[in-house]
Design goal:
Blueprint: H1 33-39, H2 66-84, H3 92-104, H4 108-120, H5 128-139, H6 144-156, H7 164-175, H8 180-192, H9 200-212, H10 216-227, H11 236-248, H12 252-264, H13 272-285, H14 289-301, H15 309-340, H16 344-360, E1 367-369, E2 372-374
Antiparallel strand pairs: 1-2
């Protein structure tokens, strides 16, 4: 359902499948969203607030006159243009101004955008409470992205008291509508035992559903299960397929993980080392210091590439600068070994080359797709899965 994503960078695939005409789960999230829209407050089950499965009855559900629709569309176009710098100078404050106009006219998409801006402090002061209120208004019209954001905020305790059990209820309602993002989050909750009893089998069921919905993080999770998870059958061919699909969707951790898999198991793909090196370089350019360190190790050992201590020194230096103190500690010994093999002038030259490379690749991105770089799916609060944060 394309409409449930942000207008900005709408071609970034984040795994939301078209909703089917199915019976909504009668969840215990009770009462009408009109309460939330009026009070700007959403309460967990038992507290008298949100119904994600049948929020009808709010004013936002009434047909919008054509004239108002035209204004909303114009305001959304202007907001999107200013946020992306498309045809006008990039100006998040102006973007917020235009999105607010559309939001005040009742556009749930614009209301979700306002929540997104408040979460990240784009054009407005960062304010989780304000973000939550805007998402609640959008959810009142049944906007799936806003419901997902509300679930994540309850999961993380952002702008509202942490309530993982309530978050799970919201996610289950979305999953009943085949929302692959919600399915992935449910997998994370069961994997980590967050608000539920930890259950790896149930987690895998949710990840599998998410992967079938072409959500890159669900695909990544399945790739991890088949390649590195303890107590799970390893099948490197299956793992490579899941990870490749995730990487093609722009998910940077999948690029790194697939690159490492192919280094150790080149037999799973005829492209082998060439593909591995390309994936690791893409992940390094996106700011993954582990990829830079791996490239340094491969160069120092002459694995998949000619042995080159100068290149190794450069990659280890890049990794240390990308990852800060943690990365510095990890590569310190390797850097010293490389330095011992180089002259002072060679070290100086490679340090300068590392600096130039960092200037060309200053980003730290989670998604890189069709030239778009983001640290989170656009329009989403985002709770990064624990297994990708290492």
């Amino acid at each position: 359902m394309r409409s449930s994503q942000s207008l900005v960078h709408a071609n970034l695939r984040v795994g939301l499948r078209p909703a089917k005409a199915c019976v909504w789960c009668a969840s215990a999230i009770a009462a009408a969203m009109l309460t939330a829209a009026l009070s700007a407050q959403v309460l967990p089950a038992g507290g008298g607030g949100l119904s994600v499965d049948n929020p009808r009855g709010s004013a936002a559900d009434e047909p919008v006159p054509d004239a108002v629709t035209g204004l909303v569309q114009k305001d959304m176009r202007m907001g999107t243009a200013y946020l992306a710098g498309n045809g006008v100078p990039r100006d998040p404050a102006q973007a917020a101004n235009w999105f607010r106009k559309a939001a005040d006219l009742g556009s749930p998409e614009a209301q979700n955008e306002m929540g997104y801006l408040y979460i990240w402090g784009l054009g407005v002061n960062k304010d989780d409470t304000q973000a939550f209120r805007w998402f609640a208004r959008a959810a009142g019209s049944g906007w799936q992205q806003a419901k997902l954001n509300i679930a994540v905020m309850y999961m993380r305790g952002m702008g509202v008291a942490r309530d993982p059990a309530f978050a799970r209820q919201v996610l289950e309602d979305l999953a009943a509508r085949m929302n692959a993002r919600a399915e992935d989050y449910l997998g994370v909750m069961y994997l980590n035992g967050d608000g539920v009893t930890a259950d790896t089998r149930t987690a895998e069921e949710w990840f599998s559903r998410s992967a079938k919905g072409k959500n890159p993080e669900g695909e990544f999770a399945m790739g991890q299960l088949y390649s590195t998870a303890d107590g799970h059958k390893h099948d490197f061919g299956k793992a490579a397929k899941f990870l490749r699909d995730s990487a093609k969707a722009g998910y940077v951790p999948a690029m790194y993980t697939l690159g490492v898999l192919l280094v150790h198991h080149p037999e799973v793909d005829r492209k082998g080392q060439d593909e591995a090196m390309a994936l690791l370089e893409r992940a390094a350019e996106a700011g993954t210091w582990q990829s830079s360190a791996t490239l340094g190790l491969l160069a120092s050992q002459g694995q998949g590439t000619p042995r080159d201590m100068s290149a190794a020194f450069r990659w280890f230096t890049i990794a240390a600068r990308q990852g800060g103190a943690v990365a510095e500690a990890k590569v310190q010994g390797s850097l010293a070994q490389c330095a011992a093999a180089l002259t002072a002038d060679q070290q100086k030259q490679e340090l300068a080359a590392a600096g130039d490379w960092m200037e060309q690749h200053p980003h730290t991105d989670l998604f890189v797709f069709d030239g778009i770089r983001t640290q989170a799916p656009v329009g989403e609060v985002y709770a990064m899965r624990a297994s990708t944060a290492e």
